[in-house]
Automatic annotation (TrEMBL):
Residues 68-245 form the NodB homology domain. Gene3D superfamilies: Glycoside hydrolase/deacetylase. Keywords: Hydrolase, Membrane, Transmembrane, Transmembrane helix. The chain crosses the membrane at residues 7-24, 30-48. This is Polysaccharide deacetylase family protein. PROSITE patterns: NODB. The keyword Transcription regulation does not apply. Its EC number is 3.-.-.-. GO terms for molecular function: hydrolase activity. It comes from Aquimarina rubra.
Length: 257
């Protein structure tokens, strides 16, 4: 966030200097367009990359984690496919963190409770996960977080403190909403792209390449391909002496109110 303020201040100063230079015919007018383009480019990177910390602080990995600990997270459930994910996790006695969508919780309350009964951790992933949710105003986005919290608590008795923005998108409105709700924002540093990549080998290679202690892996429990990838991943972790922990354990934070 400090970086964003510095960039904005530098951009304003540079803009004033450029306007002066253009006024005295020292520089061509299009030099202003170059500055605007560069500012937009940096801002777009900040919006799309949760790890940049451009708009808000997020927990993406913990390089100080003792031992070879990593966290596996799942987005967009609960879903019927989540049951298969739970079977694989149970087979290897591994705990994961599930960032759940409120409307999916309404559809599959029994699966939400299965996740919790198996001692996995539940996080908030907004109520609707609408395709245009990153365009919502602060108040509307705040309601998305609160509504998801309420339905999760109503069904499970647990009110999550962990939140992951849909698509990993961040902006000033989302930052203000999260500040109001008091959630810890959880990102990742190992993105699988299991929702778009059709190859199990490619997905597995993406999440295991240069894997190190403290890493956070992003998967989706809504995809059947993820079930197979998950088992291969857990075998890889076993062979390489990694320990899988939940997000709250990895970062030593509270998962629920």
């Amino acid at each position: 966030m400090l970086v964003r303020h510095i960039i904005n201040i530098v951009s304003v100063i540079a803009g004033v200097l450029l306007i002066s230079a253009v006024s005295f015919n020292k520089l061509p007018w299009w030099s202003l367009l170059v500055l605007v383009f560069l500012w937009l480019l940096v801002t777009a990177y900040g919006v799309a990359n949760i790890r940049s910390g451009y708009f808000l602080k997020s927990l993406n990995s913990n390089p100080d984690a003792e031992g070879k600990k990593i966290a596996i997270t799942f987005d967009d459930g609960p879903d019927q496919n989540t049951l298969e994910i739970l079977k694989v996790l149970d087979k290897y006695d591994v705990k994961g963190t599930f960032f759940c969508i409120g409307k999916q919780v309404e559809k599959h309350p029994e699966i939400l409770n299965r996740i919790i009964e198996a001692k996995h951790i539940i996080g908030n992933h907004t109520f609707s996960h609408d395709k245009l949710i990153d365009l919502y105003g602060t108040d509307r986005f705040t309601e998305e977080i609160k509504d998801a919290d309420e339905i999760i608590e109503k069904i499970s008795g647990k009110r999550p403190l962990l939140f992951r923005p849909p698509y990993g998108i961040t902006n000033p409105k989302i930052a203000r909403a999260v500040k109001k709700t008091g959630h810890a924002v959880i990102g990742w540093n190992k993105r699988s792209f299991d929702t778009t990549i059709p190859s199990e080998k490619v997905i597995l290679r993406r999440v295991t390449k240069n894997l190190k202690s403290g890493d956070v892996i992003l998967l989706h429990d809504t995809k059947s391909i993820t079930v197979t990838v998950l088992e291969q991943l857990l075998l890889f972790l076993q062979r390489n002496n990694f320990t899988t922990v939940t997000i709250d354990e990895l970062f030593s934070i509270q998962a629920y109110v």
